[in-house]
Structure to design on (500 residues):
């Protein structure tokens, strides 16, 4: 290669620094993985994204005002009193089990599960591939199909039949044992659903991560749009004014 | 005469690029060759977070969906809009609500700043969560990026906490009762729930102490923590060889 091409300011150079790669590549003038200079290819994307995000935010901020209710009044309880939307999934769980289990133990366990994922799945062959494989895609779809109706069914069951109306004493049974049994059965059921695919470790993790994400969104949506006065189930158009916690 | 002027104009960009002032700031000419394209990255504190060359896979919008960088941009916008709002806000139960009202009624662009801060906060929570989903479903957490995934989970939690602490600051009914509900959840921590809740609120109920605590957490401690861990997050991306990508075909066969 002519030095003129890559270092025009070094006119007196007639050599270049060459490194022998540990791998072969069929492509000429490219690194083993296929690379492009960050300038301009990466920076153009970043600049466009920044402009896009800023423009979208500006339009949104002009069109929609952030909510501001009456001044805080500790003597006047809001009904319903809702946490911010990303914690409403926990508040939804709170309706169905002992608060220590729903508000602290389950989220701690979920975070521990998330952090342990890379230490459970050590196989590098499918890195960088969406959903791992075609099988992984099917597992994602089936995990969603499995999780959504069961969650919706459980929410409806606990509203209209109520575990606590069937058995309320002692607290250990409706607050701890039944919810833990239900969560355990749901998890075992999820494994039973994906087992026929003969999944590897990553594909099992795909099933459980999908179960978590779907649960997160279903509970958040249920609690945000379908919980009205006294956190009872209602339809979005029947929500009392100010029930949306954005 | 005109043709001379035209000739001089044509030489102007090159003269600017060669000038002492330009060179003192940017050190190299316009990056239209490989040497300057490398130098422009290495000579700039802002660009040097990036590698000189990126994998083509990293540039595929369908691979990253741009979610990580979008989270960063939203965070930068939040620092800017939040900084402006801080000029106009005092965390006391007498004044906080009045300040927010004034933003909407008497401060030029006050409502715009507040709206942008609020919507960017919600969008950042969403973007960080979706970024986590992207990294999971593409297997980006795998070796050697295990710990960066753990850091990412921690960054998600900090993002939640930043949004949550900011939620109280307007001191209206929405924020008061949301934080009451939220801190009640923390109060269910086994064995030490009351202590955890009192530690968060500085009292047994949501009041002036809680407002001050949430304010300091929101504008100083949590952002500082997020910036530091974000620095580590980005540094590790570089040390681990950039974003994850599919292995070359010959390595998969092994």
């Amino acid at each position: 290669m002519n030095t003129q091409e890559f270092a025009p300011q070094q006119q007196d150079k007639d050599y270049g620094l060459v490194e022998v790669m540990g791998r072969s590549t069929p492509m000429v003038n490219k690194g083993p993985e296929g690379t492009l200079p960050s300038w301009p290819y990466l920076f153009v994307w970043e600049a466009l994204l920044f402009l896009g995000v800023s423009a979208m935010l500006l339009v949104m901020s002009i069109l929609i005002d952030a909510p501001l209710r009456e001044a805080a009044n500790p003597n006047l309880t809001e009904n319903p009193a809702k946490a911010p939307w990303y914690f409403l999934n926990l508040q939804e769980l709170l309706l169905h089990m002992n608060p220590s289990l729903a508000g602290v133990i389950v989220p701690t366990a979920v975070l521990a599960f998330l952090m342990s994922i890379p230490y459970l799945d050590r196989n590098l062959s499918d890195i960088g591939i969406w959903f791992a494989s075609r099988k992984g895609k099917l597992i994602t779809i089936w995990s969603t199909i499995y999780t959504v109706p069961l969650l919706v069914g459980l929410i409806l069951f606990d509203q209209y039949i109520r575990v606590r109306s069937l058995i309320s004493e002692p607290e250990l049974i409706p607050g701890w044992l039944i919810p833990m049994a239900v969560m355990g059965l749901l998890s075992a059921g999820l494994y039973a659903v994906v087992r026929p695919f003969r999944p590897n470790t990553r594909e099992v993790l795909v099933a459980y991560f999908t179960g978590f994400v779907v649960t997160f969104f279903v509970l958040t949506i249920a609690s945000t749009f379908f919980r009205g006065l006294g956190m009872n189930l209602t339809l979005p158009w029947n929500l009392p004014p100010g029930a949306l916690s954005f | 005469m005109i043709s001379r002027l035209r000739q001089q104009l044509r030489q102007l960009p090159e003269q600017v690029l060669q000038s002492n002032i330009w060179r003192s700031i940017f050190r190299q000419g316009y990056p239209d060759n490989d040497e300057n394209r490398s130098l422009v990255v290495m000579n700039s504190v802002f660009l040097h977070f990036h590698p000189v060359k990126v994998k083509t896979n990293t540039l595929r919008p369908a691979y990253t969906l741009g979610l990580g960088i979008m989270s960063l941009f939203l965070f930068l916008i939040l620092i800017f809009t939040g900084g402006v709002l801080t000029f106009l806000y005092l965390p006391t139960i007498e004044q906080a609500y009045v300040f927010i009202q004034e933003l909407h009624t008497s401060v030029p662009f006050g409502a715009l700043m507040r709206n942008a801060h609020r919507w960017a906060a919600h969008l950042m929570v969403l973007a960080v969560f979706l970024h986590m989903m992207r990294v999971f479903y593409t297997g980006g957490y795998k070796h050697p990026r295990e710990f960066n995934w753990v850091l990412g989970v921690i960054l998600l939690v900090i993002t939640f906490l930043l949004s949550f602490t900011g939620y109280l600051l307007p001191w209206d009914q929405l924020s008061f009762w949301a934080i009451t509900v939220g801190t009640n959840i923390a109060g269910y921590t086994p064995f030490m729930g009351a202590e955890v809740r009192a530690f968060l609120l500085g009292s047994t109920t949501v009041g002036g102490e809680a407002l001050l605590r949430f304010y300091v957490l929101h504008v100083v401690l949590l952002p500082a923590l997020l910036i530091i861990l974000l620095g580590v997050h980005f540094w590790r991306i570089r040390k681990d060889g950039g974003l994850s990508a599919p292995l070359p075909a010959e390595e998969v066969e092994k």
Observations:
- Residues 3-63 of chain A form one domain.
- Chain A has two domains: 3-63, 85-238.
